[in-house]
Amino acid sequence: KESVNIYPNPVQDYLTIETVFSTISYQVFNSVGQLVKQGITKQVGCSNLQRGVYTIRILNNEEGLIFKFIKK
User: Fold this and answer.
1) Do the beta carbons of residue 57 and residue 44 sit within 8 Å?
2) Residues 53, 50, 19, CA angle at the centre, nearest 5°?
3) What ranges make up the beta strands (E) of the chain?
4) Are 41 and 54 in contact (CB under 8 A)?
5) What span, in angstroms and rounded, lies between the C-alpha atoms of 2 and 26?
6) Of 49, 71, 56, 69, which Cα lies nearest the Cα of 25?
7) Pick from 39, 17, 54: which is nearest to 3 by CA?
8) Residue 1 and residue 17: Cα distance in Å, rounded?
9) CA gyration radius for the chain?
10) Using alpha carbons only, what angle is made at residue 66 by residues 62 and 69, rounded to the nearest 5 degrees?
11) Is the pTM of this model over 0.85?
12) What pLDDT shows up at residue 21?
């Protein structure tokens, strides 16, 4: 997991994915496992998400990592 970091956590507007990889994609899931957002960027807009705990899956060519974050 040292190759990827997310911040701020908790998030209000934008979640930043910090990584050494040039191309990444992400999927955001709500607390019941439904896919609520996906894309290919290092800035995830979270302002339209409801308050709560979410899981983000970050994918690149070599690995897939999962993090939890809080939307406040």
Assistant:
1) no
2) 55
3) 4-7, 14-19, 25-29, 35-39, 43-45, 52-59, 64-71
4) no
5) 17
6) 56
7) 17
8) 12
9) 11
10) 140
11) yes
12) 82
Pair of tokens at residue 34: 């439904």
Amino acid (1-letter code) at residue 70: I
Edge-to-edge strand list for the sheet holding 35-39:
35-39, 25-29, 52-59, 64-71
Q: For each of the chain's 72 residues, which pLDDT tens digit applies?
A: 467 899 999 999 999 999 888 889 999 999 999 999 999 999 999 999 999 999 999 998 767 899 999 999
Q: CB–CB of 17/42 below 8 Å?
A: yes
Structure tokens belonging to residue 48:
């339209």
pLDDT at residue number 3: 78
- CA-nearest of 45, 47, 41, 46 to 19 is 41
